[in-house]
Write a structure and sequence with these properties.
With 349 residues, this protein is an alpha/beta fold. It folds into 2 domains: 2-49 and 162-348, QueA-like, CATH 3.40.1780; 53-150, Thrombin, subunit H, CATH 2.40.10.240. It has helices at residues 140-150, 190-198, 218-221, 234-245, 255-264, 304-309, 315-327, 345-348; strands at residues 2-3, 15-19, 25-29, 42-46, 49-50, 54-59, 65-72, 83-89, 112-115, 118-128, 131-136, 176-178, 202-208, 228-232, 250-253, 274-278, 293-297, 331-332, 338-342. The model has no long low-confidence stretch (mean pLDDT 95).
């Protein structure tokens, strides 16, 4: 698959591959995804707005340039923004492929970072030389202001032009808690939501701090996705119960929604409202309790997003689907084409 290289959320020629529960494949314009929904279904999307989570600055001890990509936080509380986990790079910018970016200077606990108006301390490394725990100086309001003034959206080399913040906000964006966009939601607009309602399809949201998709380091990428906090409103938890009771499907818009709903149901089998932290990695051994279908971007084999799709499809069907995506020229990455996948009858057994 080729990478989508322009930041257009709803291009008129966007494509959709539908994979039903029997493994049958169908192609359609992505704008027709509503035609694959049924009355009684529940669609759940992530309403997280994307932070400008890339912060450029200097490593205080050496004076060397660094880029800090914020990658995790303890909770979604607005005041809980003085501590983050982060991945650090050396000099360069998004025009260089992430895997070709140089490492930062050797990082030690107590190192200071100067990031525009922000000052931060490296508390410790987190099992890898480039993954650290950071503590920002100042009050939560000062940290928020510094991120807003100095940060840029995290970006990769497949995109031609620098991203603006509005490029990575979905139409339903609310709390600014995502580190990269919950990009499956780019498919949605207000017309689509109105059409769902007219078709008897419910729509609700969760808030999930969507994490980074690549670190540029193979060993560190194997740790993805990192732990990610989420919040499930009471209305969404109730809507899931209603959908299950009437025989409707729960359709997740994006991998973050799957991760949040399945984590919230991991103990009792029912989605619990409230805050949590998704710590699991979903894959072929996972048994989905809640989500019946996923609307997602197209993903390359070996990524954590692709592994999550293995919870929905047996490997043979997933290989056939990937071959179809390649043959039909589907575009990958956040502004690419989409797949709508029902949970396989094979995987349900």
């Amino acid at each position: 698959m080729n990478a989508a290289d322009r930041a257009v959320q709803r291009p008129p020629d966007a494509k959709l591959l539908f994979v039903d529960a029997c493994g049958r494949l169908a192609h359609a314009p992505r704008s027709a995804f509503l035609d694959f929904l049924r009355p009684g279904d529940l669609v759940v999307a992530n309403d997280a707005a994307t932070l400008p989570a890339s912060l450029r600055g200097l490593h205080g001890r050496t004076g060397a340039p660094v880029e800090v990509r914020l990658a995790g936080r303890p909770s979604l509380k607005p005041e809980d923004v003085t501590r983050f986990s982060a991945v650090l790079f050396g000099e360069g910018d998004f025009r260089t492929r992430t895997e070709d970016r140089p490492a930062p200077p050797q990082l030690e606990g107590g190192d200071r970072l100067v990031l525009g108006p922000l000052r931060a301390t490296v508390e410790r490394t987190l099992g890898h030389a480039r993954l650290v725990s950071l503590r920002f100086d100042g009050t939560p309001d000062e940290v928020w202001a510094g991120i807003a003034r100095h940060g840029r959206p995290i970006q990769y080399a497949h995109l031609r032009e620098p991203l603006a913040l509005w490029d990575v906000w979905t139409k339903i964006a609310g709390p600014p808690v995502a580190f990269e966009p919950p990009s499956a939601g780019f498919t949605l607009d207000w017309r689509a939501l109105s059409s769902m309602r007219a078709r008897g399809v419910e729509f609700e949201t969760i808030t999930h701090a969507a994490g980074i998709s690549s670190t540029g380091d193979e060993a560190l990428d194997r740790l993805l996705p990192f732990d990610e906090p989420y919040r499930i409103p009471f209305a969404t938890a109730r809507a899931v119960e209603r959908a299950k009771a009437r025989g409707g499907r729960v359709v997740a818009v994006g991998t973050t929604v799957v991760r949040a709903l399945e984590h919230a149901a991991s103990v009792h089998g029912r989605v619990r409202a409230g805050d949590g932290v998704a710590t699991q990695r979903l894959g072929p051994e996972s048994r989905l309790r809640v989500v019946d279908a996923i609307l997602s971007g197209t993903h390359e084999a070996g990524t954590s997003h692709y592994e999550l799709l293995r919870a929905f499809l047996d490997d043979d069907t997933l290989r056939r689907s990937t071959a179809e995506l390649d043959a039909r020229g589907y575009l990958t990455h956040e502004f690419g084409d989409s797949v709508l996948i029902e949970r396989s009858l094979v995987r349900n057994n």
